[in-house]
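Encode chain A's predicted structure.
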Amino acid sequence: HIPPLRKRRDDIPLLLDYFLEEAAEAMEKKKPTPPRELAILLSNYAFPGNVRELKAMAYDAVSFHKTKILSMETFKKAIGENEMLEVSSTGEEELFAHLETLPTLGAATDSLIATALKRARGNQTIAAKMLGISQPALSRRLKQRED
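Encoded structure for chain A:
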């Protein structure tokens, strides 16, 4: 039994590299260099189509590739706006069941932002996407938190 790709996030960069090389060879192109943010973006995607979906994304990206650095736009379009893994996949009852009192809205917001930034490895654009807000909105919240 092989677990689904969403449970093997560490395999994503290796598989991506393999599929990019395979696609480039098949299309007689030079293998593009993926931006480091791409692995972070993909590690926060659920991959309902499993490894075949990642392979298709890589082939699609290489087919549209024109410069040395691979564009993330093809991957972002394939993932879609609302397909990022949720920061918490548990229900409301489970999320707060261990707490005697509920956190304040400010504390919950701070915790949610911190968790998203941790999962996005500090990348604010990806964290904002996971939270369902724009990157400027996340920046404003972070600035307010500092003040």
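The chain has a mean pLDDT of 85.
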